Amino acid sequence: xxxxxxxxxxxxxxxxxxxxxxxxxxxxxxxxxxxxxxxxxxxxxxxxxxxxxxxxxxxxxxxxxxxxxxxxxxxxxxxxxxxxxxxxxxxxxxxxxxxxxxxxxxxxxxxxxxxxxxxxxxxxxxxxxxxxxxxxxxxxxxxxxxxxxxxxxxxxxxxxxxxxxxxxxxxxxxxxxxxxxxxxxxxxxxxxxxxxxxxxxxxxxxxxxxxxxxxxxxxxxxxxxxxxxxxxxxxxxxxxxxxxxxxxxxxxxxxxxxxxxxxxxxxxxxxxxxxxxxxxxxxxxxxxxxxxxxxxxxxxxxxxxxxxxxxxxxxxxxxxxxxxxxxxxxxxxxxxxxxxxxxxxxxxxxxxxxxxxxxxxxxxxxxxxxxxxxxxxxxxxxxxxxxxxxxxxxxxxxxxxxxxxxxxxxxxxxxxxxxxxxxxxxxxxxxxxxxxxxxxxxxxxxxxxxxxxxxxxxxxx
Length: 461
Description:
Blueprint: H1 2-12, H2 15-44, H3 51-59, H4 62-88, H5 92-127, H6 135-146, H7 149-163, H8 168-192, H9 196-219, H10 237-310, H11 314-341, H12 343-350, H13 354-367, H14 374-386, H15 390-415, H16 419-452
Helix pairs in contact: 2-8, 2-9, 2-10, 3-6, 3-10, 4-5, 4-7, 4-10, 5-6, 5-7, 5-10, 6-9, 7-8, 7-9, 8-9, 10-11, 10-13, 10-14, 10-15, 10-16, 11-14, 12-13, 13-16, 14-15, 14-16, 15-16
């Protein structure tokens, strides 16, 4: 009955109401998930005497963290829409196989990444811009976090399968449970037991483990529509390859975010030193206040669009896209305004070092100048994903970072008189250009995609 009720709502309920019911918990979940990434930095940045150096060191771990997330979402963001499309076609057996295959893939990724990153962490952190001062902090945090990769894989890779079934509130609780643990454990381990950055990493691993148990208990329980079963875990090429084809765009987005972070840190370390890298750590944390809720909004729109696309209901897909696009654009514009008006407030959350805060305020106003356009770019790019358009989604994912931003990070400092300004201004230039191209691509292709339908057939209104 619960499964039938969810299907009926997806196929015939009010689109704005469905968006609210699915997107609000997803946005809250993303904001809480953000606490996993930034609450450590908030506490670390206020460690007496060592806060600025420790914060910079932990910030150098971000490229590794992003790569871990990228592999988790390769399975999660590719498998969940495919499962939703199968559910829209009333093919629950295929949807369950997708879930089981994605779980197996996540376990393979866990072993591979744990071994690779643990062995080569010192060399990677040096490559990312660690100095003799910041490397000890970065390595202490990295080695502990890496041992908990399997928990990150389960939480990030399987939680989308809970959301796509319509259990958005339960999906939100996955991150709530872990974040609450993290917030409680951080001050105890960092300050109470004097463990510093090691304590922050241990708190995060424990919290992710609690969330992972929560996810697995749900997907093995009686409430789920798609049950995780051993018989569905044998990897089958016809099942897993379409998921990888769709998930590769999100993988590229997150993995290029890692390359992007490396590019920023290496350029800033060269032209501005540790203080510039520290400012980038704070700015990256603040930018998550914009990008993660946008992803949450799209997680609310994705099941509606995917299900109705699979069911051949073209007008409902369009309505869901309009709601998603409006919400993404409005939120990004609001946060853009707040970041430009009150940069000192945001910077002060992460550090009490006056010089670092002052530098960050200057840099943030440059970096955030075009951030309003990310709502347009993410809203459109994620729509391609929801409709199973893997190739276009991948192209749009590559455009902003690989084609535009990373080259500009190295080109602009060579042609502008202020080299550090050149590094930071690359962000708004690429943001606006990418949003323009992605929106144009979607608006010119959407009707054709909907007319062809999920199976290439003519869709119904």
